[in-house]
Structures are given as C-alpha cells and as structure tokens.
C-alpha cells in the first residue's frame, strides 16, 4: 500500500539529489573558469599595444591581434557568466523540488510507521 | 530499525563520519595541488630574475625525456608567458615576473582558503568522532537530543514568554487600578473570554476543567508551561514587586503560551533565526544559572528551561540544549503538580512516537545552512557552499537511503527507564511532534532523596554540550 509509494518517492528524491550534486559540480567548474578568464582579461588589458599575443590552438600557437584577443576573452567571460546564472537558477529550482519530495517522503514514512504502530498492538 | 533507536543514530553518525573523511581527503588533495602550483611559480620567478643578467647562458638542453645536449640560451629577455585559457604573450622577463607575481597572489589566497576549509572539516571530524565514541561508551555524558521543531517551539515560547512578561506587568498594573478588562484566551476548544475580575477560585476551577477536557498531550503541555511560567515569574519577582493578581495572570499566560507554541510550531524556519537570536541572550544567564545550580541534588529536570542552540552539527537536527535549573524551592511544588502530567505524557509518548519521522523535514534546510556556516570561514562563498551542499546532499542521500527519516531521536523508552539519577539536563521527549514537551528523563520519587554519589557521574560535561550545540563557545 504505502510501501511502493514510499519506495517510489524515495527513488525520485534520490534522483533529485543526484541532479543537485551534478549541478553543484558544474557550478564549481564554471566558477573556476570564470576566475581564470577574468585573470586573462586583466592581463591582456595591462599589455602594451605592440605586444604579440599567441593563441594555442591544438599543438600550434597562432599569432593574434591584441584587440581581437581582448574582445574574444570578454565575450567568453560573458558567455560563462550567462551559463553560471542558468546553473544557479536550475539549482534553486532543483532545491525546491527536492524539498517538496522530501516532505512527501517524510509524510509517507510517518504514515507507514503509524500503520505499523497500529498493526502491532492489534497483532 | 526504529528511527529513534540509538543504533540508528550510531549508523547515521558513522555514515557522516565516512563522508567527512572523504571531504577531508578531497580538500587535502586540492590544497596540495595549490601548494605545488605556488612552489612552481616561485621557482620560475627566481629563474626569470637571473635570466636577463647574462646575454648568453650555457645549459644542458633536454631532448625528450632521457637525453640532453649542451646548448646556449641566447635571447634571454624574451619570454612567452602563459596567461591562462590558451593565451600566450611575448614579453620581457621583468614583465613576465610581474604577471607571475599576480598569479602567485591569487594562488596564495586560494591556499589559505583551502587550509581554512580543511581545518573546519577536521574540526567537524573531531566532533563526529567524539560523539561516536560517546555513543559507544555511554557512560560519562548525557546528550540531549530534540527535534528542531521542538527546540524551535521552545524558543518561540521563550520569546513569547518575555513578551508576556511585559504584558503581564502591564496587566498587573491595570488590575491594581481595578479596570475590568476581559482577556481573550485561546483554549484547545476555541476562544474563551476570561474576565479578569473572576475570583481566583473560579479561575482555578476553570483551569482544571479545561485541563481535564484537553488531551493528555495538552495537559502535559500545560504542565510544562506552568513550570516555565513559574520560572519566568521568579525572575520577574526578583526584579519587580509582587502583585496580588499573579495567579490569574499566570493562567492566562499559560493559555496564551499554549496558543503561541502551537502557532510557533508551524513557523519553525521563520522563527528560528529570530528565536535563536533571543536565545543567545538567554544562554549567558542560563550558563551562569547552571553553574549556580550544579550542586543541587534535586532531580527534577522539568523545571529547566531549554534553549535551542544554533545550527545543529549533526545531520537530522540533533540539538543539544543548555538547560537552566530552578531553585530547589520551586521544584517540589512542581513535582506534585506534574506527576499527573508525566503519566499522561508517558502514555502519549508511546502513541506519538510515530510522528517522529516528520520532525526531520524542517531539519534539512537548517542543516544545510549549518554546514554552510561550518564551512564558511572565508569569503569563498560559492565554492564553499557548493562543496558543503554537495557533502550534505551526498550524506543526506546516503542516510535517506538507509530507509528511514534522518530524525535523530532517542527512544523515549530508554529515556524513561534510564538510571534513576539526577541529571541537571533535560532530555527531550521528541516522540511527540505536536507537543512541545521536554520530557523528564527520570523521576525521582519525592520521598527518596537522590543519591549524592551519582550526581557527579551523571553530570553532563558542559564542554560536550558546547561541542555538540554551540559552534563557538560563548
């Protein structure tokens, strides 16, 4: 009766928890990427105009224009920040869902225990 | 395995212990990585400092992994620096040093942050270990465990009591002036209007009738409230003059508190921060009180006030509480009053244990915040919170996987049948979700004085309480 329901609820809860974890990991990665990109942007801005900048594409280093490199880096930074915002929103939504699911699991568990409690004195 | 059995708590603790170990290992790895990066940067900077000193350096140039050949480093001032994210820049050695210095600063802050987090994790491990050890030895210290709900409700009652102390003072003054004010009092059945002008005897009758009509839980609640009110009253009496109309006030206060507690239970999370702030102010007098009353041998714990402490460290909202004891004079009175309440309580405890599981529900968010607070000793909020939330979610997933709610609740059976010994701390009967009743752990019969020899053995170590409940000693 309550058992399959409870098992199902627990399963969904576990799945939600795992999703939350994966989300947290992605978030951490994004954070480190953001930090790095910000550093690069800062360094590029400090450079003189005539410095030569190379970009590593695979095993080769390709010469790039300083201005071009700066714009590329800025765009990349914005992109990562957008990703970060998305991941945060998803995290919040997942948390809310997990909380709901947890409440449901608790309720079912309590019901089950109640039934067990009433069954025992009867038996 | 019952949810509130000590065996379950033990296993949950072990799981948590393992989790903390894992987190510590991950943190140590990260720290070592950062340290090695820092060392490399420093070495490179050293080399760069010496490089432009000579036009030409002779060196053994590595050729693959296993071979070298002698060569010269000629253009000693031109270096290509990796900026990060696949960008390189050709610059002078001095400028390269500048770039590396800035990188080094970032890495150093990362190292210090990682070290702090590691320390926090290690502290957490210590706590877990000590609690595990105490669980197995089960001799020296007594732990008070209550669900967060109950502690929140108690906090709410403590906060509301203070408000009502002021209100009571006001009412008392009014009564002295003889105004006929009707107080609206909420009882279990509904609202009843109790004119303040009723004689004390009539009011007592009313009270008793109401008590009999109410459930055993409510009666126990009221009994508990009476104690709390008496304690509050004592404090008031110490400050203010005694007024003749105390009893009426008390009874009204009781019922109001009953109402407020029932309402307070529904607002657990909201009230916790506010009430915790209130309770902090109270912890000081409570601690002093504890010291004062340590010698007293009377075993009645029901007189004690409870203060829920801030973030529960263990999963599932285990909260140890600092307890305040009443002076001996009051305790005997209350023993008489509360015997009935106790018996009813015991009956209700068995029936109410079922609802224990639901208590863990509000424990989850505070737990997360607890872990966050524990981890966060530095401004690296996103990193720390994500790691802490991942730890909490993984540990919570493992405990939920064990099939029952993560409520850390001692069986009231062990609580009630425990050694008959005076314990200055109150063990909370957490089996009743809706009732805010800290159960008396043991009852010493009125006639028999508690054996003095056991008092010291059963005294809970304040340090243990602090470790369990308080993040920082206050």
From TrEMBL, chain A:
UniProt entry tagged with the keyword Chaperone: yes
UniProtKB keywords: Chaperone
Example of a GO MF term: unfolded protein binding
A Pfam cross-reference name: Prefoldin_2
GO biological process, one term: response to cold
GO CC term, one of those recorded: prefoldin complex
Keyword Chaperone: yes
Listed transmembrane segments: none
Annotated signal sequence range: none
Gene3D superfamilies in UniProt: 1.10.287.370
Family, similarity comment: Belongs to the prefoldin subunit beta family.
Protein name per the record: Prefoldin subunit 6
Protein source organism: Tetradesmus obliquus
UniProtKB/TrEMBL annotation, chain B:
GO cellular component: nucleus
CDD domains: Prefoldin_URI1
Chain intervals for the UniProt region annotation (Disordered): 164-218, 233-416, 443-474
GO molecular function, one term: transcription corepressor activity
Low complexity: compositionally biased ranges: 164-176, 202-218, 234-257, 306-361, 377-415
Protein's UniProt keywords contain Nucleus: yes
Classification via InterPro entries: Prefoldin, Prefoldin_subunit_alpha, RNA_pol_II_subunit5-mediator
Superkingdom classification of source: Eukaryota
GO biological process, one term: negative regulation of transcription by RNA polymerase II
Keywords of this entry: Nucleus
Primary localization class, coarse: nucleus
Subcellular localization, as worded in the UniProt entry: Nucleus
Similarity comment: family membership: Belongs to the RNA polymerase II subunit 5-mediating protein family.
PANTHER family to which the protein is assigned, alphabetical: RNA POLYMERASE II SUBUNIT 5-MEDIATING PROTEIN NNX3, UNCONVENTIONAL PREFOLDIN RPB5 INTERACTOR 1
Protein name as annotated: Prefoldin subunit 5
